[in-house]
User: What shape does this take?
Amino acid sequence: MTDYAPQSQITVLDTGGQYTHLIARKVRELGVYAEVRASETPATELTDRKGIIISGGPASVYEAGSPTMDPAILEDGHAILGICYGQQLMAHLLDGVVEKGTKGEYGAARLTIRNLTSPLLKGLESEEPVWMSHRDTVFTAPSGFEVLASTPTCAIAAIGSDAKRQYGVQFHPEVVHTRHGMKLLRNFIFDICGCIEDWEPRHRIPVVEEKIREAVGNRKVFFFVSGGVDSTVAYALCLQALGGDRVHGAYVDTGLMRKDETEFVESVFARLGATAFRVEDARDFFLSKLAGADEPEQKRKIIGEAFVDIQDKVLNSGHYLDQDWILGQGTIYPDTIESGGTAKADLIKTHHNRVAGIQKLMEAGRIIEPLSSFYKDEVREIGRELGLPNDLLDRHPFPGPGLAIRCLCSKENEPISRLPDGWLIPVHSVGVQGDSRSYRPVLAVESLHHESATELINRLTVVNRVIGLIGSFAPLDELSVRRSGLTAERLDRLRAVDAIVRRLSVSTGFESQVWQFPVVLIPLGTAARPDSVVLRPIHSVDGMTASSVPLPIDLLNQLKAELLEVSGISAIFHDLTHKPPATIEWE
Ligand code: XMP
Assistant: This one.
C-alpha cells in the first residue's frame, strides 16, 4: 500500500478501546502525525518512534487472553503514556498490582494532583475535572514510579517515572470532558517525547498527488463513487493529479437515495471538471429485486447482491478490468485498521469488496486509496482546500442501503393495542443491547420526554423503542398497521417527507447541531393515509452509541404542520430512544 503520511513519531497501541482512534486524532490535532497499531506489535517495528501511547480497552489485564504488548517496549528507553487499561497494562507487566476496584468509576471525576511539577502534569491545576471509565485499578505502583494524582474513588489515578520517561493515567485525556486533557497530551508529545510538528493535512496535498502519479504510472483510474465525502475527495485528488481524461467514475442510482441526490452528485462532479463521470441508472433493477422483501436482513442481502451485479456489469462493459486500469477507492484511515472498536460498519462497502472483479484488482495490487492515512475531519479539510462545496463536505452520514432501511414494511394488517403506558405498535425495528441485536415492536406515547421514555424502555422488555406523538390526522386508536412493501410509491412518499424535514432542519440551523437526522416511514395509518413518519435526530461521535435529541419547539411545530399535509401520512412521531437500546436506523 502506498503510504501518504510521514513516518510516525507517535504510535498508539490499540488494546480494543472505543477511544483508540480518538487518541491518535487528538495527537494529530496537535500537529504530530500518529498511527494506530495492534497492541502486540513487536518492539523491533517501533524502534524509531519518539513515543508510544497505550490505549484504553474493556478487558482486565489479569485475565488470560487479554490484550498485551511486547514487554521489550518497556525496556528499550521509549517515552510511554498508558491510558486507562494502558496504565494498568504497564503496571501489570512491570511489578505493580492491578485488581478489581471495590466500586466502578464512570463519568466525571475530580482529580487531585499531588505533583504539579511532573513533566506530564505541568500547567494543570491542583484540582481538575477528568473523565473516568473503569472498575479495575492499579493498587500498587511499579517500583521507581511515583503516584502523581488521585480521585476519591481511585487512589492511583496517575503514575510516572521521569527517569524512564514512562507515565500512566487512569482517566481519559483524549475526551473533551477532561478539561486539560489536551494540555497533558501536549506535555507528553512535545516535552517528554520531543516530537516536532510535522502534520497539517492540507499541506500534504502535493505529496499525495505526487504519490498518486507514481502509483498510477501511465495507467488510468476508475472509481465507483457514492456521493459521500470520502469517495468524492479521493476522486478530486486523482483528478487534480492526473487530469480528467485519466480518471473515470460511475455512480449507481439505486432509486434508494434521497430526493435530488443524483442531480446533486452530478452537479458536484461537473463542477470538479470530471468529464468521464457517469450515472448508472439501476432504479428499476433494485426495485424489482426488492419486491416482496420486508425484513431488515433480507433487504440488506438483496441490496448487497444487486450492487455486486451492477458493479460487475459496469466494470465489464467499460473494460475497466484491463491492464491499463486501476481502481480508486475512498478508504479512510479507520477503515484500514482492524480493531475491536470498528463497527459492523458498512454493508455496501463489504459487498463492494466482494465483487469478484474488485477482489482480483486488489489481489494484483491494482488499487489506489489516496485517503488511507487520513481521518474523516482531515478528509474534510483536504476537500475544503480542493474547493469542494460545504454542502457536500458537511453532510450527515447516509447509510449505503439508503432509504430501504428507513422504509419499514409489514407482511400483514395488524391492529395496535392500548397498554397502560401507551400504544403497542406491531412494527418491528432493530435494537442493540450488549452485543446482541433485538427485533421488537415499538411503544408510542403521548409525551415527548426523554427521561420517561428511558424509564419505560428499561421497564418494558417487550419493546426496544419508544416514540412520542407529535401530531396526527386522526386519533391513534383509529390507526392500524397496514400491509405494505418497498414500493416506488412509498419510497417517493419517504423522499417527500425527508426533503421537507431536511429543508426545515437546515433553515432553522438544527441540521448542524445534530450528528444525523434519519427520517423513517412506518406502515401505520388508515386506508386513505397508510403511513406515518418517525423523526430520529441524534447526537453521536461515531455512530456506535447515540443519544436522541429534543426538537426545538418552533421546528417541531413547522414540521408537524408541513408533514401532515403530505398525502398518505397519518401521524408524526419523535423517536425518543437512545442507542443502546435502539439502533440509529430502524431497518
Ligand atoms: P445503527 O443503525 O447500526 O447505525 O445504529 C449506525 C450508523 O451506521 C450507519 N449505517 C450504515 N452506513 N452502510 C453505511 O455506510 C450501512 O450499511 C449502514 N448501516 C447503518 C447509520 O446510518 C448510522 O449512522
Observations:
- The longest strand covers residues 97-113.
- The two ends are 35 Å apart (CA to CA).
- Residues 406-575 form a domain with the GMP Synthetase; Chain A, domain 3 fold (CATH 3.30.300.10).
- Residues 20 and 55 are 6 Å apart (CA to CA).
